[in-house]
Each structure stands twice: as C-alpha cells, then as structure tokens.
Amino acid sequence: MKQPDMLFRERAYIDIIVGQVDTAIEFVVSHPALVGLLALLLGFVFFSYLFIRRILTGLREGYDEAYREN
To answer: Taking the model in full, what pTM does it have?
Structure first.
C-alpha cells in the first residue's frame, strides 16, 4: 500500500503533465502557420537525410562493384 505522501506526489505529477499538454495544444491552435512551417522544415530535413543516405549507399556499392571487377 502506498503512503499518502506518495499518492499526493503522483497526483501532482499528473497535474503537471496535463498542464503541459494543455499548453502545447493551445500553442498549436493559436499558431497554425508556425506549426505548419516547422512541419515542412522537419519534412525537408527528413527528406534530405534519406536523399543523402541513398547517394552514399549507391556510391559505396559502386566502389565495391568496381573493386570486385579488378
């Protein structure tokens, strides 16, 4: 059985988390253009990572293939 002090602390942590989620939701609703811009920026970074990764893996495969031929 938990002590009353621990129950109060758990409830306080839950209240803090709920408050932070409410704040985040209010920010998203009040600044949709900024959130959209951040989503586009994140998508661009992810696309760039995949693109560069594909280039480097293709380059490595080309070097390995050329090395095997010689």
So the answer is: 0.59
